[in-house]
Amino acid sequence: MDYIIFVVSLGALIYGADFIINESEKIALHFNISSFVIGASLIAVGTSLPEMAASMTASYYHKSDMAVANVIGSVIFNISLVLGLVFLIAKKVSPKRDLFQKDSAWGLFPVLIFIVMISDGVISRFEGVMFIFVMVAYIIFLSSDAKELSSEVNEDLKKEKFNWLKSILLLAVGFVLVIFGADYTINSASNIARSLGVSEWVISLLLIAFGTSLPELVVSIKAARKGNADMAIGNIIGSNVANFTMVLGASAIINPLIINVSKNLFDIISVLVVSVMLVFITANRLYSKSAGIVLLVMIALVIEHSL
Question: Which architecture, in CATH terms, is 2-306?
Answer without folding.
Answer: Up-down Bundle (1.20)
